[in-house]
Design goal:
alpha+beta; five-stranded mixed β-sheet; four-stranded antiparallel β-sheet; 9 strands; about 35% strand; elongated
Length: about 160
């Protein structure tokens, strides 16, 4: 049995929010004087931009409250999403069903993230791995951020892991 928890770091999120706010200030100064004839649409654009930045900031703060727990129990890899006291099973894969676990880059992750499950906080420090598996004639994949210790535990059960 093995367990580990991954949480998003706060400093990169704060940095991203500061960049959004700085960009917002510059863009709002540019669009405030935009007009079409006698209609001043700059104020409407500024309100829409304010709402957009507010939604993005709330989404970033919400991402900080989500953690992932990776567990190996018997011959199964179980991934939980933790938010507050709520615990939800995201993936449950038999170790024998895993075809490969390989390190991937963030570009591939960002291109694939809309089409497969994401079980990672993306800290930009940890490596992101792609896990491909098949069970009962169904194949799937997901991305996660395991520690090197978890990778070595998975490697004991399965030799298809690429660092």
């Amino acid at each position: 049995m093995y367990k580990e928890t991954v949480a998003r770091k706060k400093m990169p999120t704060i940095f991203i929010i500061v960049i959004y706010l700085a960009t917002y200030v510059v863009i709002s100064d540019v669009v405030k004087n935009v007009s079409m004839g006698s209609i001043l649409i700059g104020e409407y654009l500024k309100i829409a931009l304010t709402l957009l930045v507010l939604v993005i900031i709330i989404k970033q703060v919400n991402k900080c409250s989500i953690r992932y727990k990776y567990s190996i129990i018997a011959d199964e890899l179980i991934i939980y999403r933790l938010k507050g006291s709520r615990e939800e099973v995201i993936e449950s894969v038999k170790l024998g069903d895993i075809q490969c676990v390989e390190k991937t880059n963030l570009l591939k992750y960002n291109l694939d993230r809309f089409f497969c499950k994401k079980c990672a906080c993306i800290n930009f420090i940890n490596d992101v791995y792609e896990c491909k598996y098949s069970n009962n004639n169904n194949s799937g994949k997901f991305y996660f951020e395991p520690s090197y210790k978890l990778i070595s535990k998975l490697n004991i059960f399965n030799n298809n892991i690429k660092h």
